[in-house]
Amino acid sequence: MSGQVLLFVPLDDRPVTMDFVVDLARAAGVEVRVPDQSMLGDRNRGGDVDRVWDWLNRQMAAGGATAMIASVDMLCFGGLVAARKSEAEFEAIAPRLLRLREVASRVPTYVSAVIPRTLIFSAEKDVPSRRRHTQLNTNLIDAASQELFRYVLIGQDDTSTHSQSQADREMLEAHAQAVASNVLVTTGADELNVRLLARWLNDLAAHSPAVRILYTYPEGAELIPLYESTPLIQTVGEHVRSAGCSLADSSPEVETDILLWVHNFKDQPQEARDQPGTLDPKKLEPILKQVGAATQSEKVVALADVRFANGADRALVSRLLDEPRFTGIVAYAGWNTCSNTLGSAIAQAVVVHHLRANTLPGSDRIFRPVLFSRILDDWGYQALVRPQLARWLEDQGGVPTELGVNEGTAETLALQGLRGDALPLLQASFPRHPITINRVAFPWHRLFEIRIDLERLPELYEF
């Protein structure tokens, strides 16, 4: 399966939507071609759509690509934020959809698109043109029904039950179920492309890994996470299927490839900043026994840390890092929404599964830093450092959404926090995989997301 070349058009230029996908694909042995970051815009400036299309045309002319994963929101509007703000009517973007169909006729193409969010806590204005998005997504479903695309993943951005975006989703779901088996209307946005990466890799291997789900609180699986509109158990199933995997029976005796531990909540969901910092040993210890048994039988174990929104369970990750090699867990995520976390954890697990089966030519040397980045970002920064930075920023009279003159000092404090609080525990758990953090930055000039510059130091690497 060597020699795979992926054209990748990301949702925007954030580390979680661009770097994570690129790094994970390269860990799988894939050559990734992605537009220069300068084309992709940022939080305040939409991507240069014409330049992105010029890049794509040059790549197609050069040849050699074996697949494409593309965000329709970037190709039509210039990214997620630009799509929210755009007042363009469907007729203005329709020619770009026709161009996308033409590209898809020449290279196997997997596309993602987003149902506009429903605002919950934000004071920003709602999306000015929901009808346009409905027409766009319907167009994609119809193209998929004609097998112009290999797979279409339409995600529901931040929302709640009984919202307008939930109504949009239900309409699109009904249409997709009627005409196209290669479309899934689902929950999520930022992680859609990494789910498509996992699906493409499984398609290449002609294999659908079997995934067994293990909930920390099975009684909470029917609850609805923050910023979402469907029960957790439904969302988990959607993510597994969208990644090209299959759901296995929940019995430990059933033969599976991947154990997905969903560390969920048992009552009302909370933000990570409000977490009590405690664990329930009666729940945790039996689960750790199952995790240990799975790792001993060489199963891939992934942890989707969805107990809290916008950050990891501090106490849980600290407990796991007390054990050698993170208790054998090889895939982890705990960032932003439940769906962002689920898709990220499953995609990592798929890559590790194929690396172990030698169905991909990638390398653990490249994969390990991907895992470390997620632990340091989702736990080290989001759950440990960011709350401290928010308090410091408030003392300076600043706001988390616009760092301004405080950005340089905030970068220094974030670096110090990660080096002092998080990195030592990570290195104690993985002594054979030494790394250092060279720098951290705030790519969108706010506290919400961070870019961590990791350097892998020479040492022995192994699964």
Written description of the protein model:
It is built from 14 helices and 15 strands. With 463 residues, the chain is an alpha/beta fold. The protein folds into three domains: 5-206, Rossmann fold, CATH 3.40.50; 210-357, Rossmann fold (3-Layer(aba) Sandwich), CATH 3.40.50; 386-456, no CATH class. The strands form four sheets. Strands 2-1-3-4-5-6 form a six-stranded parallel beta sheet, sandwiched between helices. A five-stranded parallel beta sheet has the order 8-7-9-11-13, with helices on both faces. α1 packs antiparallel against α13 and α6 (130-145) packs parallel to α7 (164-179). The longest helix is centred in the last third of the chain and has 32 residues, at 364-395. The chain is globular, with a radius of gyration of 21 Å. The two termini are 21 Å apart. The mean pLDDT is 94.
Intertermini distance: 21 Å
Average pLDDT: 94
SS content category: alpha/beta
User: In the CATH hierarchy, what is the architecture of the largest domain at level 2?
Assistant: 3-Layer(aba) Sandwich
The helix/strand order is: EHEHEHHHEHEHEHEHEEEHEEHEHHHEE
Instruction: Assign the CATH topology of the largest domain.
Output: Rossmann fold
Profile the largest sheet. 6 strands, parallel
Number of strands: 15
**Contiguous uncertain segments of 5+ residues:** none
- What number of domains? 3
Please give the count of helices. 14
What oligomeric state best describes the polypeptide chains here?
single chain
**Overall 3D shape:** globular
